[in-house]
Amino acid sequence: MAIERIQFLKVPLDIVQPEELESVILELLAREGPRQIMLVSLWDVLRARRRGEFRSMVLDAALVLPTSKSLIRGARFLKKKAPVRVNPFPFVIETLGVLEKYCKSVYLLGAHNRSLIQAERNVRSTFPRLSVVGRFHGYYHRGIEKNIITAIVKSNPALVLVGDGMPGKQRWIYRNRSRLHSGLFLWNAEMIDIFSERKRRIPESVYERGLEFFPLVARNPLRVFRLFQYFWYNVLLLTYRLFRTAS
Q1: How far is Cα 109 from Cα 89, in angstroms, rounded to an integer?
Q2: Which of 85, 102, 129, 135 is buried deepest, with most CB atoms within 10 A?
Q3: Distance between CA 236 and CA 102 in Å, rounded?
Q4: Which CATH number goes with the domain that contains 82?
């Protein structure tokens, strides 16, 4: 499989070249058991350095792909092979395109019901040969979770695209992995709402310049406090560069 994994600040990051995504997706689908794909930001990597469930989830993931430009810069600073940075929306579109090419299926899970219904319509119209084998909204009563998982397992989709409103967010996948079928699982809080056109995605020009943090701060001003984490990240990079031979 065309995946190269590096250890970056004690956190795994995978290198997948864009032209190899199709073969990687097909290889992951051939494996037994649920396979979680994680798109990780700088903040995710810092969180995954600590012991706990989130770190265990990252270590268990089949694919860990960086979304932050700072992670690419950091890998180069530590003289490691730099991963390929992923933009979440185009990545999901390309993944769905691969699945459509091979007449696979997808299950949509999460978000509010109105958003979910519109997202399903848009996915069906954009990918006509991709089967949408089911959907269920987020923010549900925990008492029906068993029925939701049963429905997903019976429909056996190649990909479960998980959005907002799930208990534990992306941890929902990890916590229920023993009850899920073989296939791919990918969480993104905004993806279903973007598909439904209820949320606007960050412009690619902004993303390519590594400035996606600023629109996020505009949506939630409390994110400005992450600047302290960014400072700590740079301290970590310098420390690893000066005193460690492997990270």
Answers
A1: 17
A2: 135
A3: 43
A4: 3.40.50
